[in-house]
Description:
The chain folds into 2 domains: about 15-65; about 70-104. The longest helix is centred in the middle third of the chain and has 25 residues, at about 35-60. Helix content is about 60%, strand content about 0%. The protein is extended. By secondary structure, it is an all-alpha fold. Pfam families: TFIID-18kDa.
Amino acid sequence: MDSHVEVTNKQFPRHRLFSRELPMLMYGFGDSMPPLAESVDVLEDILVDYINDMCLQAAAISAKRGRVAVEDFKFVLRKDPKKLARVEELIARNKEIENARALF
């Protein structure tokens, strides 16, 4: 049984959540500055679809508990060691920052 949650193909309004960051990332990876707006739009669509898919997979895993946890995202990324390592690194850094804030 596939645990993937199906989403209707509604056309959602574009909010351009990453419109400032993506051109800089694209330039850093060799694109021209400024990159074509169409290229940024396509890359943002791919990124938003990927994030939505990951969230839906994590929600499907956590359906019995009723809430999504960080461990659910780790489980979704278990087959991609680079991404999983990056998530674990970011979690560790976040704990360090929280501990440093607690000291002040």
